[in-house]
Design brief:
The chain has 426 residues and is α+β, with helices and mostly antiparallel strands. The protein has 11 helices and 20 strands. It folds into 2 domains: 298 residues, Aminopeptidase (3-Layer(aba) Sandwich); 111 residues, Alpha-Beta Plaits (2-Layer Sandwich), CATH 3.30.70.360. The strands form 6 sheets. Strands 1-4-8-5-9-18 form a 6-stranded mixed beta sheet, with helices on both faces. A 4-stranded antiparallel beta sheet has the order 6-7-20-19, with helices on one face. The structure holds zinc ion.
Length: 426
């Protein structure tokens, strides 16, 4: 936890009025949230993602100078038959406004959710008058509506011309942004700060430092044989996979903060056949950026050793899609700016490290200081108990709007304003 609150400058009368008037939009935002949550937009449902993007296009286009719909390359992954699958992704929407302004802000939201089309969790239910349960309500359909309200307030501010912005709505965050990562990186270097609208932590605080994450699939090919007549001719892929898995389990805590979790495994067909294929999937979390290379080398070594044994062919697919996000002084000055804005709303925000990752990791790896939990208040995300606290649709938009007003009037936080100009960073 960090407490670096400085004396804030008070918002002007107009700013206070704008912030207060936002409550008038609350019933509309709740209705829009319900309509958005009713569209299934699992990362693996491009059709639903595109419908979500189209719904939002009607809302964001009037605020922006330019809207582009971008097709992404498919997501390549190994399936449990050891074959390379090309999973089509939904489209990415990019909105731009005032690219000529001296300060450029990148806002990010994701259209996808973790709930597949056939998940029993598809509907909304009201838990209390101010709390809804629904798939993706907090993560992050509510967050996208927070962006909408915050940007609409910025456009009413007399000094909005000082801020230009780009909004990316990507379709693949929940699967590690495999298709949108190159675009996130490209946009990150064109902007001064990033604002990402993941829900806040359950205690309404912000995520600070984040671990990095790598997803891997290992396919072990052996040789099939009759288990009774000539087992010696077989090469048991499951046994070999088990050997590799035991070695992988040893990775845990070899470096500070490093964890490895094998999450899925499949192999074999019947008990009287020596299995010729076993496939397993694992995730590695790292706290230090240099550990990505360290892990990759160790994995390569392990796979090479497994391949040296007669009759086996072992392949590894995947990599570190997200590097750790570390809170350097530049990030801290941005977080402090937000704390000052929160004080005007009678709130104190803090931040804490988390093992989870998001697109904030990608922006940070590309050198863009960012805050990545500016979305709604909620809880139990990625489960059928996911809830959103409805007033936070307005409260969190007020917080973001105050941050944008402050930046328009006072410029960027220390450290960020001293960095090279946006043009120089292109
Ligand atoms: Zn999310």
């Amino acid at each position: 936890m960090n407490q670096l609150i400085h004396q804030p400058t008070k918002p002007s009368r107009l700013e206070s009025q704008l912030i207060e008037q936002l409550w008038e939009l609350q019933p509309l935002r709740e209705q829009q949230l319900i309509e958005l949550v009713e569209i299934n937009s699992s990362s693996l449902n491009p059709e639903g993602i595109n419908r979500t993007g189209e719904y939002l296009e009607a809302l964001f286009t009037p605020l922006s100078d330019r809207c582009e719909r971008i097709t992404l390359s498919p997501w390549e992954r190994l399936d449990f038959d050891g074959r390379l699958l090309k999973q089509p992704l939904g489209d990415l929407w990019r909105y731009r406004c005032r690219t000529e302004a001296p300060i450029q802000i990148l806002l990010c939201g994701h259209l996808d959710t973790v709930f597949p089309k056939n998940s029993p969790f598809q509907c909304i239910s009201r838990i209390t008058p101010t709390c809804l349960n629904g798939p993706g309500a907090a993560d992050m359909k509510g967050g996208i509506l927070v962006i909408l309200s915050a940007l609409s307030l910025l456009e009413k501010h007399p000094e909005h011309h000082k801020i230009g912005w780009t909004l990316l709505l990507n379709p693949d965050e929940e699967i590690g942004s495999p298709g949108s990562a190159p675009l996130l990186q490209k946009e990150a270097v064109k902007h001064h700060i990033g604002l990402v609208y993941e829900p806040t932590l359950p205690d309404q605080n912000l995520a600070g430092a984040r671990k990095g994450s790598g997803n891997f699939t290992c396919a072990v090919h052996g040789r099939a044989a009759h288990a009774g007549r000539e087992p010696e001719k077989g090469r048991n892929a499951i046994n070999k996979a088990a050997e590799i898995l035991l070695d992988l389990a040893q990775f845990n805590h070899l470096r500070p903060g490093l964890t490895l979790n094998t999450g899925m495994i499949q192999g074999g067909e019947t008990t009287n056949k020596v299995p010729d294929l076993a496939v397993f999937k694992f995730n590695i979390r790292i706290a230090q950026p240099e550990d990505a290379q360290w892990c990759q080398q160790k994995l390569n070594h392990l796979i090479k050793a497994a391949n040296q044994q007669d009759g086996y062919n072992v392949t590894l697919h995947g990599g570190f899609g997200r590097l750790p996000k570390q809170l350097d002084p530049v990030h801290l000055s941005l977080y402090q700016y937000l704390q000052q804005c929160a004080l005007h709303l009678g709130r104190k925000v803090h931040w804490q490290a988390t093992g989870g990752c998001c697109d904030g990791n990608n922006l940070s790896a590309a050198g863009l200081p960012n805050i990545d939990t500016l979305g709604v208040h909620g809880n139990f995300i990625h489960s059928a108990d996911e809830i959103i606290e409805l007033p936070s649709l307005t409260q969190q938009a007020q917080l973001s709007a105050l941050l944008l007003f402050k930046i328009a009037q006072q410029g960027l936080p220390t450290g960020i304003s001293q960095r090279e100009s946006r043009e120089a960073r292109r």
